[in-house]
Task: structure prediction
Amino acid sequence: MTPPPADAPSAAANVRRAALVYNPTKVDTDALRGAVTKASAAAGWGEPLFRETTIEDLGDSATKELLAAGADAVLVAGGDGTVRAVSEAMAGSGVKLTIVPSGTGNLLARNLRLPLTDREAMIRATFDGDTLAMDVGLAELRRADGTLDKHAFVVMGGMGLDAAMIANTNPQLKKSVGWVAYVDGAARSLVNAKPFRIMYQLPGRRLHSARVQSVLFANCGSLPAGLELVPDASITDGALDVVIFQPKGAFGWLFVWRRVAWDNSVLRKSKTGRRMLALRTKDNSVLYSRGDGIDVASTDPKPVQLDGDEFGEAVAVRTRIDPGALLVAVPRGHDVTGL
Result:
């Protein structure tokens, strides 16, 4: 009989133990481990377990190992890619996940309106906070050779220009200036951006054909700098929001920018602004839909991204939503209205 891991919790002692998965390039390792150890002791829990992410393991394998060892709660600290990988392993486990904000974007933490600068508050939430059941997106990528890859995402994914933008972003620049580096990636991607033909279908609806620049599938829709890409997206509604970008020429891109930076992020926040939007002539540069997911197919392989990480090229993407699959710790009394 194989003995349990040396750091596995003792069932006989009935001691609860938390586990921390962290990206050592994004955090102050000693300070973070010390804070989790201190909070665990204060809550009467046992010595916590720790795992670092690596180039080979973004956190999913480490998380599965910790869950198998009996961890009663998992904390994650790192960038959006680390949060995505750990969330993928945690989905459906019934074990609570705490997001300790760190890294570049922290998009999930932003969309959950978590305290981005109070690490101790989030660590404490592991032991005495409330729990929110949030949706998880599932993406099946079909490669040009017919092989399939399946991954989860918690913020949003996309096929086309948005993924090319991420692939063209300088990693060193991103490390230095954060999400602003995506502006450089966008500028380089737009130079050669060409629309491509897709077939797409939302479950239960008819098949469509369109020439697009990008297709996004979003679980939540807020971006840094106060931009609302998908203002009606909800992380708890059991649905994915789909955004199709199909601008025609330079003026089309101006319409896209107006929709995201002005209409969604400014006008929609006031009653007067919403009246103005109701009177405006509609344009088709940006189309919004909502449903259980979307099936997208292209004749040529196109780049794909999930939660800001590039996932190579695919000729088809099938996305679905897993309602309430991830249990997330939030501070006690945290306002979850509108999430």
About this structure: The longest strand covers residues 309-330. The first helix runs from residue 29 to 42. The CA atoms of residues 183 and 192 lie 15 Å apart.
